[in-house]
Amino acid sequence: MTDISTRSADGGAGGAALSLRKLAPVVFLAPAILMLAVYLLYPLVDSFRLSLLDWNGLGSNAQFVGLDNWKKLLSDTLFWEAAWNNILLAVFSVLIQMPIAVILAVVLDNAGKGSRILKILYFLPLLMSSVALGVLFKYFYDVNFGPLNALLDYVGLGYLAQDWLGDTRFALGAVIAVICWQYIPFYMVLFMAGLASFPAEISEAAKLDGASEATIFWKMKLPHLKGTIRTAAVLSVIGALRYFDLIYVMTGGGPEGSSELMATYMYRNVFSSFQLGYGSTVASGMFIVVILIASVLLRFSKRYETEV
Amino acid sequence: MNFVSKLSALACGVAMVAAVPFAAHAADKTITEWDLQTTAGAVKVIRDAADRFEKANPGYKVEDTHILNDAYKTKIKIAFGANEPPCVFSSWGGGPLREYVKADQVVDLTPYLDKDPAFKDRFLPASFGASTIDGKIYALPAENTAIAVVFYNKDLFAKYKVTPPKTWDELLNVIEVFKKNGIAPFALANKNKWTGSMFYGYLVDRIGGPEAFANAAQRKNGGSFADPVFVEAGKRLQELVKAGAFQKGYNGLDYDVGGSRRLLYTEKAAMELMGTWEASTIGNENPDFAKKLGFFQFPSVPGGKGDPNALLGTLGDNYISVSKACLEPDKAVELLKTLTDDTAAAGRLADNRIMPLKAIKTDNPFLTEVYSLVAKAPSVQLWWDQELTPKLGELHKDTSQALFGLSKTPEQVATEFEAAAKAELK
C-alpha cells in the first residue's frame, strides 16, 4: 500500500490514474499468467530439474547425477526407435488425414443441406473417448474373433488376414489407421469452415465460364484452403509427436516395442520401472524433439505465407 | 482502502468456511487405507474388518478406498511422490515394495510381530518371504494364495484321449494332438507380458531349481542370468512356440479384456497357464464352462534339477503395509492385524480366497487342492516381474515377449538381461 502511494507521489498529479492504467493489464493478465506458470512453465522447468536426478520418485532418496541421464538418452536405442515411430505417425497422419479430410469437406460442402446427417455421422468418431475407441478396435482387430479377419475371409481374401496388433510388422500401422479414423473428422470440420468463406459467386462465375467441378476444385478451392491445410498439417504433426492414448490402450507400445512412442516410453519409465529421473529425461527429450520439429515447420509455413 | 477491506473480509469468510471441516476432523482421527480390491466380496471383508477396528478403537475412523489395479499402481506412486501416502497400503511384496522400503517410506513390522508371536505364527512361514527385506518384515500377506497352474478343458482332453502331461515329452505330445485337430493347445494373452513370463519362470525353475533364479537375482553364489539354465529355458520356450503350442496372435491379445479366456470358452484352445484366481474369474464369467475346468502342475523338463512340485506364484497376493508418513503408526498396525485376523480369513475363504495361514479348513474341493499343492511345495517363487526390481521386471517382461515373438535368441536375451542386472544390482 505504501509502495503504491509513494510511487504515485513521484508521478505527480496524474500519477494515480496512470499507474492504474498500467496496473489494469497486469491484473487482467495475472490469472492467465498464473495458470500458465503453474501448469506449464513450472512442470517444464521441474522436469528438467528431475532429469538430472537418479530417483525412483518415492521419498527423499534422490541422487544428483548431472547429465548422466542425458548421456544415456542419447545412446538409448529404445528412445530413438520410439521417436522414429512418432515421426512415422506424423508423416502418415498428414499424408492420410489431410487428403481424405479435404475430399470429405469439399463433397459435403457441395452436397449442401442434404448432407447434414452425414456431417453428424462423420463427426462421431471425434466425439468418442479414445479409451473406448481403443477397446472397440482391439475387438475389431482380434485375430481369432475379430470382424476384420472374418470379413477378409468372407470375401475370399483370407490370405490377407493378419495378427494385426500382435505382429511387430503391423501393430503400429494398425493403430495409425484408427488414429486417422478418429482425427479425420476434426480436420474435415476445419476445412469445411475454410470452404464456408469461399465466395459462392466466384465458383458460379467460373461455372458460367465453363470450368468443370474438377477445375474449380484444383484451381480455386484448394488454393483457397492452402492456409488452413498448412495450419492443420502443423497441428497434426505436433499432435502425432506427443501422441499417447490409443497406443497405450491398444498395444501398450508392444509387441516388443514395435509401436512404442516417446510418450508411452516415458510412461513406462516413470510408472512401471520406477525411474522418475530417467523418465523425466525422456519427457524433456521429447519436449526438445517436438519444439525443434514444430519450429522448423512453423518457419517453413511462415515463409510460404509471405511468398504466396 | 475500501478494496483492501473488502478483500480481507472475503479472506476471513474463506478462512471460516475452510475451518469448518478441520474442526470436524479433530474429533475423529482418520486412518486412510488404500487397496486394489474392487469385487464386492473382497471389499466387504475389508470394510467389516474396518468396522471391527473402529469398534475396538473409539475415536478412530477408517477411510477405505478401493482402486482398480492399473489405476492403483499409478495413484499410489504419485501419492508417495507427493508425500501424501495413505496410512495403510497394498503391494505385491518383492521388488516394488523394496523400492518403497529403500526410500524409507515403510514401517518395519518386525517389532510389532515379535510382541505378538501368537498372531505371527498363524501364517505359513514362507508367506513372509516376499515382504522380508534384510531380515525385517515390512508387510503382512493379506488376500489370497495364488499359484500358476495349467488350467485345461476336461471335455477336450477326454475327447482327444489325452491325459494331463507330467513330463515335457508328454506335454509335446498333447500339443501335437490338439494341433492336429485344429485346436490351439495353449491360450496365451501376452500383450500383458506377465502372462508369458510365467512359462519362462517355470522353465527356469524346472531346469535349474529355485536357486538358479534366486542366486542370479540376489547376486549371490556366483549366480548370473547368463547361466546356461536361462539359455536352456529360453530354448524350451521357443521349442513350444515352434511346435505351435500357442494360438495365433498370442503376443497381441489382451488378458484384461478376456482375450485368452474367450479362446477357452469357445474351445478354440485347450489349456492356459495362469494364476489360480482364474478359476473364480471363470466361475463368475462362465459358470457352465467352469464345470469342465481342471488343472495340473507345470510339467518337468528332462534332465532338470527342479522339483516338479515347486511353484510359481504368491502366498499373500496382496501384502499390506503401513507408511512412515502415517501419524498413527501403532493404530495403523492394529488395523493391519484386524485386516488379517481369523474373522477376515474366514470372510476371504467364503469368497473363495485362501489366506496363507497354517490352519485353513475348507470344503471347497478346488481350494483344498490348491492348498495341498502349496503345502507340499518345496518352494514358492514369487512372480518374476514382482520379485525383480521394477526396472528389471520391465526388462524381463520385454525380453520374454521377444522370446515368444522369436525375434531374439535365448542367448541374446540372457546376455542382455545379465548386463542390465549387473548394472542395476551392482
How would you explain this protein's 3D organization?
The complex is a heterodimer of chains A (308) and B (426). Chain A has 308 residues and is mostly helical. Chain A has 2 domains: 2-50, no CATH class; 69-307, MetI-like fold (Orthogonal Bundle). Chain A is built from 13 helices and 2 strands. In chain A, strands 1-2 form a two-stranded antiparallel sheet. In chain A, strand 1 and strand 2 (63-64) form a beta hairpin. Chain A is flat and about 75 Å long. The model of chain A is unreliable at 1-13 (pLDDT under 50). With 426 residues, chain B is an alpha/beta fold. Chain B has 2 domains: 2-138 and 318-352, 3-Layer(aba) Sandwich (D-Maltodextrin-Binding Protein, domain 2), CATH 3.40.190.10; 146-314 and 380-425, D-Maltodextrin-Binding Protein, domain 2 (3-Layer(aba) Sandwich), CATH 3.40.190. In chain B, the strands form 4 sheets. In chain B, strands 7, 8, 9, 10, 11 and 13 form a 6-stranded mixed beta sheet that branches. In chain B, strands 3-12-6 form a 3-stranded antiparallel beta sheet, with helices on one face. Chain B has a two-stranded parallel ribbon with strand order 1-2. Chain B is globular, with a radius of gyration of 24 Å. Chain B starts with a helix and ends with a helix. Chain A binds chain B through residues 1, 56-61, 135, 138-139, 141-145, 163-168, 171, 251-252, 254-257, 268, 271-276, and chain B through 4, 73-74, 77, 80-81, 83, 96, 99-100, 102-105, 190-193, 247-254, 257, 259, 262-263, 266, 268, 389-391, 393-394, 398, 401-402, 405, 407.
